[in-house]
Design a protein that fits this description.
The protein has 14 helices and 5 strands. By secondary structure, it is an alpha/beta fold. It has a domain of 205 residues: Rossmann fold. Strands 2-3-1-4-5 form a 5-stranded parallel β-sheet, with helices on both faces. About 5% of the residues have low confidence.
Amino acid sequence: MMDKVHTQIEEEVAGPLVPVSDGLELYFHIGMHKTGTSFLQEHFFPHIALTSFNRLHGFSLHALTHGDLGGKILVSEENLCGFPFSREHVLGHAEVPWTIQFENSIKNLSSLFPNAHIIMGIRRHGPWLLSLYKQYLHAGGTKPVSQFFDISPNDAGIFKQADLLFGRKVELIERYFPCRCFIYNHDDLCMHRMKLLENLCEFLGVPIPEISASDLERWVNRGVGHYQGHLLRVLNQFDRVRIKRRAWSASRVFCQVVLAQWPRKKMALESEIEQFVERHYTADWKRASEACSRVDHE
């Protein structure tokens, strides 16, 4: 995505890119996917005291490269860090691995906005992988989880083993946005939400907003359960037209909404995949979580 953004900006702005105004404080919340992004976008960011909060749609970053903008601007768009899997993956076509997308996007974002600040969430590998697989099903996927994430040496899954690593992503963020990045742990957003949000407000340099208890307790984008997920994977094979058009399919609506509470059993990764993740990603989690904002759990 960022390669396309960078190219389009260069084409639309006459001459070289105009530096962002010195009076502009620019913050990018880049996800990652399935780390509480929708909660922040819908129930937190709109409440804080900023000049502007935007959920980026299309390729409108060029508006930030010229003009008389000032104050604090927060742009929240998880696709700025690339796509863990694209609709082309769902439809069976090849795509650039997410790890490469992420690196290219961060480099380009730094090139366009060298003084910007970055906000990014991470999540424990096992639950994160499961949540990404549910998202894949929501998008129309038909593969079982063993083919979505292949633990064999062939690494032939849609989501590659290297894509599950956080250490390299954190390293890139810290390198290209030194002392200007806020990395949070999804666990803290779930279990110590208000304390984490206080830390985030301090990073943004804004007062802590008044947020209703109901908004703080909200959670969005809950995935399908065990039975609904199995059914959705089968039904997706017969609903390819809507999937191709990027619309919510009838299958997804039926399984995620209509059957949301009947019967309810949590989806889980296969034991072999859980053990593989535990063996191969523990050190990576230790490295990445050490970069997260410190939250007092007492």
